[in-house]
Amino acid sequence: MINVITELSKYVILTLMIVYTFHCFYMVWRQDEEEKRELLHQQLTMIFFIDFTAFLVIYLKSMDFRVILFYIEMMIFFAAIQILYRIIYQNASLLLLNNMCMLLSVGFIMLCRLSLPSATKQLLIVAAGSAVSLVIPVMIRKMKFLKDLTWAYAGIGIVLLAAVLVLASTSYGAKLSLMGIQPSEVIKITFVFFMASLLCTKVDFRKVVLATIVAVIHVGILVLSRDLGSAVIFFVTYLVLIYVATRNPSYLFLGLGGGCVGSVIAYHLFGHVRQRVSAWKDPMAVYQNEGYQIVQSLFAIGTGGWFGMGLCQGSPEKIPVVKNDFIFSAICEELGGIFAICLILVCTSFFLMIVTIALKIRNPFYKLIALGLGTEYAFQVFLTIGGATKFIPMTGVTLPLVSYGGSSVMCTILMLAIIQGLYILREDEDEQIETQRKETIERRGKRATPERKRNRQTP
Q1: I need a labelling partner for 360 at 20 to 30 A (CA). Which of 91, 204, 221, 269 fits?
Q2: Where, per UniProt, does this protein localize (predicted)?
Q3: Contacts (Cβ under 8 Å, ≥6 apart) of 450
Q4: Residue 283's pLDDT is what?
Q5: Where is 436: in which H helix or E strand?
C-alpha cells in the first residue's frame, strides 16, 4: 500500500508543480487584479498540497514522528511569513513571496528526505532570516543615505574577504568560511551596493577604472581563496552593471576578454581548477578520484528519467555533498526531469520578475541594485545546475533557497527582501505619478472654469 501511495504521489506532486509553473508566467500577462489575487491563492493551495503529499510519503517510508513535527513547524512558518507580509507591506509582490515559499518547500522536502537534522537547522536559519527580512523593505524606503556609502561597501567586502583568505581553514579545496559563516554570501550584497552607488550618477572613464580596480580585488581574493564559483558570480555581476551604466559594449567585450585570459591563467596556476576541468571533460576517465561526484550526479539524473523514482525510492545519498552542491541531481532522481524543468522555470520567473522591477524603477541607484541582485541570483542558479548536469565545470555554489547552507539561504532571503523593498518603492513612484497627474488635471479644470464663465458673459 505504501508503495502505491509513493508511486501515485510523484504524479500528484508533478501535476501541481506544472500548474504552479504555468501560473507564474500566466500572471505576468494578466491585468485583472481580481484574477491575479485568485491565482495567487491557488498557488498557495498548490504549495500546501505539494508539501502535504511529499511529507506524507517521507513519513510513511521512515515512520519517524519527527517528520510530522517538522512539517507542522514548516507550515507554521509559511503561514506566518505570508500573513505578516500582507499586514506590514500591502504593496509587496505576493508572486515573489509565493515563489520564495515554493523554492523553500522543495528544499525542505529534499533535505528532510536526506537528513532531518539538516532540514531542522535550515528551517531555523530561514525563520531567523525571514524575521530580519521583514524590516528590510522599510529600511530601503526610509534610508536615503545608502547611495552615499560607496567606499564603506567596498571596504567591508575587501576586509571580510581578506580575513577569509588569511584565517579560514581549507574545506573541499577552498577557503570559504569563518566560524561557520561564509562572508562571500554577504559580500554579494555589499558588492552590488558599491557598484550601484558608484555608477548611479554620471559615469565617466575614471569611475569605470575605480569600479574595475575594486572588482579585481574582490575577484582576485576569491580566486586565491579558491572560491571559484563566487569569483565568477562577482565578475559577471561587475560586467552587467558596467554595461548597463555606460551602455558601452566595448567595456563588455574587454571584460569578457579579460575573464577568458584570467581563466586560462587560473587553470595553469591552480591544480584545483585543473581537477574540475578534468572531471568536466571526461569524468569516467577519473571516476575514482575527482570525477566520482559528477558521475554519480549524472547516474542520478539518468535514473530518475522524466517522472522520477519517487520520494525515498532513489539513492541520492551516494552523491558526495548532495545536500549542498548537487541537490538538483537528487531532485531529478526522485521527483523527475519534468519537475526539475519546472523548478528551473520557476527560478527563471523569479529572475524575470526582478528584471521587470528594475526596468520600471526610475531611480538609477535602485535600478542598478535590482539588476545586480537579479544577475547574482540567476547566474548562481546557472552555475549550480550547469555543474550538476556537466554543462559546465562544477564551481561549488549552492542552489539558492533549495540547497542546504546557512549563509547562502540567509543572504538570499535578505536579497529578496531588498527586491521587495524596491518593488514597494516602484509602487510608491507609480502612486506619486498618478497623484500628480490628477492634481494637474484638477488645476487645469479650475483654470478653465472662469474662462468658460467669461465666454458666456461676453455678448
Answers
A1: 204
A2: Membrane
A3: none
A4: 87
A5: helix 406-457
Give ∠ CA 292-295-301 in degrees, rounded to 5: 140
The answer to whether 323 touches 118, Cβ cutoff 8 Å, is: yes
Decide: 378 and 437 in contact? Cβ < 8 Å: no
What is the reported pLDDT for 436? 63
Q: What does 25-74 look like in DSSP terms, one character per residue?
A: HHHHH---HHHHHHHHHHHHHHHHHHHHHHHHHHHHHH--HHHHHHHHHH
Every domain of the chain and the residues it spans: 1-141+320-352+397-453
List, for the chain, all residue ranges whose pLDDT scores fall below the cut of 50.
none
How many residues are recorded in the chain? 459
Cell 488645476 found at = 443
Cα–Cα dist 183/368, whole Å: 22
pTM greater than 0.70? yes
**Orientation of helix 406-457 relative to helix 183-199, angle to 10°:** 30
CB 418 within 8 A of CB 96: no
Give the tens place of pLDDT for each residue, 53-110.
999 999 998 888 999 999 999 999 999 999 999 998 888 889 999 999 999 999 999 9
Is residue 90 helix, strand or coil? coil
